[in-house]
Design a protein that fits this description.
The structure holds two protein chains of two kinds.
Chain A (H helix, E strand, L loop, with lengths): L4 E12 L2 E12 L3 E5 L6 H8 L9 E9 L2 E2 L7 H7 E4 L10 H11 L5 H14 L3 H4 L12 H13 L5 E5 L7 H14 L4 E5 L3 H7 L2 E6 L2 E7 H6 L4 H7 L5
Parallel strand pairs in A: 3-8, 3-9, 6-7, 7-8
Antiparallel strand pairs in A: 1-2, 1-4, 4-5, 9-10
Helix pairs in contact in A: 3-4, 3-6, 4-6, 6-7
Chain B lengths: L2 H34 L5 H5 L2 E2 L4 E2 L2 H32 L4 H14 L3 H15 L6 H25 L3 H9 L4 H30 L2 H4 L21 H10 L6 H32 L3
Antiparallel strand pairs in B: 1-2
Chain lengths: 253, 281
């Protein structure tokens, strides 16, 4: 079931000042599948995620070695258009972070910045993105209400829709259900399942159970090191490394 | 003493303190209104002063103060908002930016008469603007810059960092994020700072003393390079320099200055609540 790698991470080490966050991580992330980055807190999952769309460029005082390829192209090579990269690699954060403004404005924010002005085109994007995020039916009559008036679960799916509006190839999700109740969590997970056939999804889940539920492919990160990676079923039922087994079976973490 | 009684006592004390704050303000405003209202007439507001300012109106002083405040706004607002955006959004933490911040904080503490002397040296003499509205407005602008920059920078910093991250993740440039998200969110706070600065500029005497204010000039200013009378300085003059000045005229002048400043304040509140409600993005 391993598809061709969409993203290649090669010998990436990363540090915040003198605080190492990733140590020589090498990992292939397959296209059109859900890859789960899991492990105890402080393992470097979020850092790795944010390196894939260069969001960590916003953080000062960091050092990075190694290379990351998207479709074979080094995204840290000089001259890479970071803005274009981020349009190809969308991101959803741990807390739902709707921008100030309406549902419509939130979804259309990215496309508008990308220069799309045509009203009909924007409406089309709006409906498609919200439908993909399984939110259309719930908000189709509330498009011009403030996004902050939606429930937490709806806001998070709105954030997914906002990323999808740019038609990215890769979707990064950093504990997207950590602030949500079980029912909203289930809705977000179903949304991800529906998206899996057409997007490359990399997710930091908020629990080991969630990892097991949704992973096509999984990577276990422990204190900045990649311990083990492989198809999800194998990793969660028959891990090769002792540390993975301890973590998966709940002996620590 | 039970916890509830302690709490009630605490609230009572706080209420008392807020009364202590409000009473002097009401007293000042009240006494100015009571004693000055009689002086206000159509002639007082629209005529030139006569008889060594004891008769006639204060029109040139009103026009002068409005012109100076407007000039201050034109000069100070773009610079302060631009500076605040740079400091809050772009500047990295270097010795240079730390020096700039230190300078801004210290500028806010400089007595206004020093600004007056600085304006005299730089604008009136060195740059040759003479005693003029231009020199006065620029001097007032420099005096108000620290207040405006600090307030605007604070307002920008109060906008959650996550919005900037979201903007970046959606393919927005830093400037797009500032323009579409950060600035609109910070606008109410920025407007407050701008208005605080302008209110101070409208009421200051010392900075205009050497740079623009005329003791007695019973005509309207003709250009930016013209001297003018201004309300705060005029008030100072008629209170201390003109013997036999009717008390009512003094209070009337104070009342006009007060109304001018309060209406500026009120318009700020209206603008601010408008933007809060609209919350554009």
């Amino acid at each position: 079931m391993v598809n061709e790698p969409k993203i290649r991470i090669e010998h990436v080490s990363y540090a915040y000042g003198s605080q190492p966050a990733l140590k020589d991580v090498t990992l292939d992330i397959p296209a059109r599948a859900i890859t789960v980055l899991f492990g105890p807190a402080g393992g470097g999952k979020t850092t790795l995620l944010r390196l894939i769309n260069r969001l960590n460029d916003l953080v000062e005082g960091t050092q990075m070695t190694g290379r990351i390829f998207l479709d074979g192209q080094d995204i840290y090579a000089p001259g890479v258009d970071v803005i274009a990269l981020r349009r190809r690699v969308g991101m959803v954060f741990a807390l739902p972070l709707p921008l100030p403004g309406t549902v419509r404005e939130n979804v259309c924010y990215g496309p508008r910045l990308a220069g799309i002005r045509d009203r009909a085109r924007l409406d089309e994007i709006l409906e498609r993105s919200l439908t993909q995020a399984a939110l259309w039916d719930e908000v189709k009559d509330r498009l011009d209400e403030p996004a902050s008036a939606l429930s937490g679960g709806q806001q998070q799916r709105l954030c997914i829709a906002r990323s999808l509006a740019l038609e990215p190839e890769v979707l990064l999700l950093d504990e997207p259900t950590s602030g949500l109740d079980p029912i909203s969590t289930a809705k977000v997970e179903m949304t991800l399942f529906a998206l899996r056939s057409s997007y490359t999804i990399v997710i930091v889940p908020h629990s080991i159970q969630q990892s097991a539920r949704i992973a096509d492919y999984a990577a276990f990160l422990l204190m900045g090191e990649l311990v083990e990676a492989g198809p999800g079923r194998e990793l969660f039922t028959n891990p090769r490394d002792r540390r993975t087994e301890d973590y998966v079976t709940g002996r620590f973490g | 003493m039970g916890r509830h009684r302690a709490q009630r006592l605490g609230f009572a004390l706080l209420a008392l303190l807020s009364v202590v704050v409000v009473v002097p303000i009401l007293f000042v405003v009240g006494s100015i209104v009571v004693r000055g209202a009689g002086a206000i007439s159509w002639e007082f507001l629209t005529a030139m002063p006569r008889e060594g300012m004891r008769e006639g109106g204060i029109l040139p002083a009103i026009v002068g103060t409005i012109a100076l405040t407007f000039g201050t706004a034109v000069a100070a607002i773009p610079v302060s908002i631009g500076g605040a955006i740079y400091l809050a959004e772009y500047a990295r933490d270097t010795p240079l930016t730390r020096l700039i911040r230190l300078a801004i904080i210290n500028l806010a503490g400089i007595p206004s008469v020093v600004y007056g002397l600085f304006g005299l040296g730089l604008f009136v003499l060195f740059l040759g603007f003479g005693s003029s509205i231009l020199a006065g407005a620029l001097t007032l602008a420099i005096m108000t810059l620290p207040v405006m920059i600090s307030a605007a920078e604070e307002a920008l910093r109060a906008v959650p960092a996550e919005f900037r991250t979201v903007n970046a993740s959606l393919g927005g440039t830093r400037w797009q994020g500032i323009r579409h998200i950060v600035l609109p969110q910070a606008l109410p706070g920025i407007i407050t700072g701008v208005l605080l600065g302008l209110l101070r500029a409208a009421g200051e005497t010392a900075p205009i003393l050497f740079t623009v204010a005329a003791f007695y000039l019973p005509r309207l200013p003709r250009s930016l390079y013209d001297e003018t009378m201004a309300l705060p300085y005029h008030l100072y003059v008629i209170s201390t320099q003109v013997p036999g000045m009717p008390l009512q005229v003094q209070y009337g002048t104070a009342l006009v200055l007060l109304i001018l400043v309060l209406s500026l304040n009120l318009s700020a509140t209206v603008i601010r609540s408008y933007f809060r409600r609209k919350r554009p993005w």
